[in-house]
Amino acid sequence: MPKVSILIPSYNSAHFLPTSIESALSGTYQDFEIIVIDDGSSDDTKDLVQSFIDEYPHKIRYIWQENMGLARARNTGIRQSQGEYLALLDADDKWLPCRLEEGVKILDADHSIGLVHGNITYIDIDDKEMGTPKRDIPFLNGFIFENIFLRKADIACPTAIFRRSCCEDVGGFDINLSRLGCEDRDLWLRIAQKYRVIYIDKILSYYRLTPQSMSRNLKKMMEARLYVIDKYCPQDDQRKYNLRHKALAKVFRDMGDEFLLKEDYIGARQEYIKAIGYDPFSFWPWVNWIKTILRGSVWSQ
């Protein structure tokens, strides 16, 4: 049985899928299986994957399902997988050669660790590099539930490798988030509640930004983020009052930042006021609210 199961959900991504599969096949660590979950694609995904299966019959499997969204596709892959460790690779992303080797080495060395992750470099549809996010390393290691919840820590999907036993313990991806987003962050939260998380301070994967990227659909992302907050910090749980309000403040601050970038100063101001209402001692919503006043005044002249 393979040590690692690589899960590649794909929906009409045949254009990028060969690059994704090839990046996994060319890695320095080879004890793995690749499971491509075709989420009801209407392109030539099936034929494309079959060409890889013909060449690597013992490495790659293909599963088709009706279109049900990302969370359900990943759960299908988990159910069909055999590996002790699970690694995520979306059809439009690609790995660096060391990606699996680095993660497996850490998981093998310490069974108290549930998940390992690293950094990414953004690329566009033409593989042009678009920058690498800066990471605040102290927030990325240990039992980091609160850091993930308040978005002080970000775990990039194409760098995450985690134990199958963690999924058996905390459950798989939440299907209520399947068409919204945040399904990965929700799973990381449940793992981080019970298991240590370790960050590798290296670029392990390329993360592709496309016009269709889910993270660019602000309405859906807002709905998903509010769902996750309600899930872990219900409004009627007074013990989690402060954590809930800090999380809500972060949501509205981020929305304000989006409006500010678009020079929608009225919309940004409204979001910052919401953020300040939930966390009046947070510094940046006040600073950015002042920016909307100053820039809005200049713009209106």
Structure description:
It is a single chain. By secondary structure, the protein is an alpha/beta fold. 45% of the residues lie in helices and 18% in strands. It is built from 11 helices and 8 strands. It has helices at residues 17-25, 45-55, 70-80, 99-109, 145-149, 164-170, 183-194, 218-232, 241-261, 265-278, 283-300, and strands at residues 4-10, 32-39, 60-65, 85-88, 94-95, 113-123, 161-163, 196-208. An 8-stranded mixed sheet has the order 3-2-1-4-7-6-8-5, with helices on both faces. Helix 9 packs antiparallel against helix 10 (265-278) and helix 10 packs antiparallel against helix 11. The N and C termini lie far apart (69 Å).
Please describe the topology of this protein.
Elements: E1 4-10, H1 17-25, E2 32-39, H2 45-55, E3 60-65, H3 70-80, E4 85-88, E5 94-95, H4 99-109, E6 113-123, H5 145-149, E7 161-163, H6 164-170, H7 183-194, E8 196-208, H8 218-232, H9 241-261, H10 265-278, H11 283-300
Parallel strand pairs: 1-2, 1-4, 2-3, 6-8
Antiparallel strand pairs: 4-7, 5-8, 6-7
Helix pairs in contact: 8-9, 9-10, 9-11, 10-11
